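Aim 2 progress update. The chain analyzed this quarter is reproduced below.
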Amino acid sequence: MSASLLLVAAVSLAIAAVCRHFRLSAPLVLVAVGLGIGWIPGLPSATLDPEFVLFVILPPLLYSAAQDSSYQDIRASGRAIGLLAVGLPLFTTLLVGLVAWGAVPHLPLAAALVLGAVVAPPDAVSAQAIGRRVGLPRRLMTLLGGESLLNDATALTALRVAVAAAIGATTTVWDGVATFLLAAVGGVVVGLAIGYLTGWVRNWLTDPTLETAIGIMVPFGTYFVAEELHTSGVIAVVTAGLLLGQRSLRVGYATRLQDESVRKSIDALLESFVFLLIGLQLPDLVRGLAGESWAHIAVDSVLVLATVIVARLLWVYPATYLPRLLSRSIREAEPPPTPASVFIVGWAGMRGVVSLAAAATIPLTTQSGEAFPARAEVLFLTFVVVVGTLGLQGTTLPWLIRRLGVADDDTAADRLTYAAAQDRASREAELRLDEIEASMAPDDVRRHQIGMLRKWVTTQRNTAWEELGRGPDTIGESPTAAANRIRIELLQVQRKVFVEERRAARIDDEVFRKAMRRLDFAEGLTDRGDS
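Predicted structure tokens:
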């Protein structure tokens, strides 16, 4: 099994690299390649282990997404995110369950609701990966990102209740409500506790490498502790991620830079891994349906997939417009959303590996010892929903965004606000330089350094304002861009000299690595217009 997972990881990264080079949609290509590879005879099996997905893959992805999220934006959109993250999964669970109950033979209502809960949550990986690629506006990304951070907890809690009913365990509506409240409140408490503890430890340390190592362990430890306490590991990880993301300024700059690089690398690996793993599941799922009527399975698949897509569209329009109709304060505080943007939110409901992992946790038997009803069909229908939403919605989403005119309109505003803030920051820095210079003696040799620092502060301001104008394709290279380009060329010249010095054995490897780190850091400080 470990060799199979290692092979999957290596192949997924290679495919992701090719997709990035040719600007292709890596999630869709990875799923398609996985579908093809899965049928090649002789290759080792890569069966999905639900515990591996829920305890190893999901926590770091949720944690990273939470750290990149804006608490202020999520709070400002709290009502809309709550309706999407709590109301929509429950609505989808009910609607899909009712349709599956009437369509799938020998599937009782409780087991049908299990299927509904499994396919209810759009996946955090899918929403973030495809949303970034298609360039959704920030508000829509905030809605989808906030939803994907929290809807797993709603759906997995609903799954617990539905499974308990399906296998014959005693459960009531109030039991379900109590389970959900315990999961939500307990998850928040665990996340806050671990977040504050981690923040205190990282502030106490002064070793960026060790601080980053602790940060890597936070999502796994948080998820494990929360689940052991029978609360929501998803909510706990998201809470800890949001808290530590907001408090990131309390750690050193080296830790922040290192944290981001490590997180992005882990994200790239896990996102590629899970999409290829999705495609590889088909052969095992097909073998589980031996003896079933493929005509009935095809009809059931179409009905369930259509219900999942339609349920989201049926929910988002009333959830968007009814609160505005009922509340004058909402109408006055929030600009009216366009029907096109609401449709895009409704169409961006791709499912992912979490649904497959949740389906794999369905028990084999009920409490009476009988086989769980239609378990193989539930797993296959889940796979159809995952691949179907990725294929249908994922491929058409970019075209719909262009067609409906829902484009990213935040770039110009971001550049303006950044330039204005940088201008104020530069002026404050110049005032501080004036104070420092005034305290120096007239013949102080450090006055030369003050002049160099003034030029650096001026460069920061100029770069921000230059980015507001037309690009270099129309006005040519700006003075700041030219200076940066020359500075990088000079750094490359110096690197070449250090390489030659090492080859000639005039410096050892330790001195060489120290020189390279300093040159790399100097290049990182260079202000670039495309950064």
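The mean pLDDT is 84. The radius of gyration is 27 Å. These observations will guide the mutagenesis experiments scheduled for the next reporting period.
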